[in-house]
Amino acid sequence: xxxxxRQIRASVVRGGGADYHDQAAAHWIVGQxxxxxxxxxxxxxxxxxxxxxxxxxxxxxVEDEAGRVGIGLxxxxxxxxxxxxxxxxxxVVGREPSQRELIWDQMxxxxxxxxxxxxxxxxxxxxxxxxxxxFARQRDLPVYALLGGxxxxxxxxxxxxxxxxxxxxxxxxxxKLPLVHGPAEGMEGLRANVERFRxxxxxxxxxxxxxxxxxxxxxxxxxxxxxxxxAPLGLYWIEEAFLPDDYWAYRELRRRLPPGVRxxxxxxxxxxxxxxxxxxxEAVDVLQPDVNWCGGLTELMRIAAxxxxxxxxxxxxxxxVYSYHFAAARPHMPFSEFLMMHPTASAxxxxxxxxxxxxxxxxxxxxxxxDRPGFGVELNPAVARTEVE
Length: 389
Ligand SMILES: [Mg+2]
Hints:
The chain is an alpha/beta fold. Helix content is 33%, strand content 16%. The two termini are 26 Å apart.
């Protein structure tokens, strides 16, 4: 009985960099990056201008009869917290965290009339991660051990941010640049994009990985022109070229990629159903589910099984320690992403700082996972949260 969940709490964190998209104006992550909103000049200079920070983080805590607490995070703020506190809670309280399959199925089926993707599944993800965390703490094991790992606990990483030169010097396998200019900025913008990539390639040398993240900003003609220009510069992959629902554009771009260039996508895709469409369309070379969004770890394992059956790599988007445990249990996974949360991407900073304590960060480009129980992280009591009731 002491393993029964007696309470689920949902709270939100706003301001002060407590959400990773909620940063001061000088931070690269809210600066000029090509987005679907780059068509509108007034929303071009900053991602906060169109509201990337509008929701903030939702924190879910599940507490058992013995007072142990599991923690899960997602993006979704007050609306996601409301779903947890007013809808999803009924499937959790009185159950045990070992019952994740039952709880997931009931959360998904009961919310499908308004959910399926986006915010509702983000909320499900946070609950699912909190259940994994609590279950692992009850067993006194790290999450990766419950997944059948470790296959290894030291994970090589690439660094996402505007400063791949620093990252490669630090020992990362390479870097992933955010694209700056979208198609609405014409040939001048395209030339600037190409020259920026060329400068990065010169700086990191010929052997480092160099990727380009387009954050859903392109159309097919522009993407084709871009990969043609960047292939000779050693573009390893182009990421999220189009809006996530345009499976047809992804399929066409992948068919027409120059040799050596890969197409990666999936950070804004949800559940096994969404990913099976990407696979059915043969739309990607690399799948990038975000475990904090795609349906949690329970759903990520299903997505990974689908990808395995097609022989495609799963390299999760961001999500720090939550995806590192998945990586540490995977037999085959080439490397992990590390999102550079330093304002100029020239120092290693934990992705979820200051919200979490104990988050492992790469040293010399590799993350080593501690064997603490659960995901091995705690909520920082110094970060103010507001509970949603
Ligand atoms: Mg991305």
